[in-house]
Amino acid sequence: MSILIASRFGFTLEEPSTALLQFEAAALPGQTIIHSACSIAAADGLWRVPAHDAIGERVWLHGSGRFEVQYEAEVTTDRALPALDTLAAMPLHLLPGEAIQYLLDSRYCRADDFQSLAASEFAGTEGGARIAAIAEWIAENFSYVPGASDSNTSATDSFIKREGVCRDYAHVLVTLARASSIPARYIACYARGVSPQDFHAVAQVYLADPSGAGGAWQLVDPTGMADLTNAAIIGAGRDAADVSFLTSFGPMRFEHSRVEVALNT
Hints:
Elements lengths: L1 E20 L9 E11 L3 E6 L6 E21 L19 H4 L14 H7 L5 H15 L1 E2 L10 H7 L1 E2 L1 H14 L4 E7 L9 E9 L6 E6 L11 E6 L8 E3 L3 E13 L1
Parallel strand pairs: 5-6
Antiparallel strand pairs: 1-4, 1-11, 1-12, 2-4, 3-4, 7-8, 7-10, 8-9
């Protein structure tokens, strides 16, 4: 079974400058790109580079004026989703080197400030059970409110306001997981079930592999909306800054975006 993806967005660079884009589903173990097509109109220059953790690709774009980006793909997944509360925590000294950065504070996720709260609010839980408890707490205490946040909103801001969108929910879960000494990273993806449909944000946490062979990254969606079995991962990072679908290094006016995700039966 596969999913069909169609996304489109437009923006204007108000003077000659550079933008960094990341919007294509990544080719990963357990996730196969059956076919894809990408069109970026009006660019003077385009260069592809590996994205964060070599998950997917970014596109450097240079030029000025109005740009229209269109992307279509069919993606099939083969992904196990074990029950989080059955997974143990990984001893910190056994973490692979690349996972350690996901224990540390990042731009939007100041985990050090939440260590005492995580210890008291989720006392008696650890590992995957702690993550499941965090996700349940967010679901019970947060309201999904489009427009309640912007690109400057941090996990701390969201925790105080108790509202936001998928980006904010993911930041809070990532922050509380790191505050619990569990590596957590921010995932951009395409997923069914998201309302309103858009580029979606979830989290991945590093826990003991159910097979008993080391650790593995496990997806978790604190909004509870996404069909994670068939979600197509775009990229991973410390927080939203690492996997934004559009980052401008000059004056930019964002104009529109549209995302459609459907099951191909």
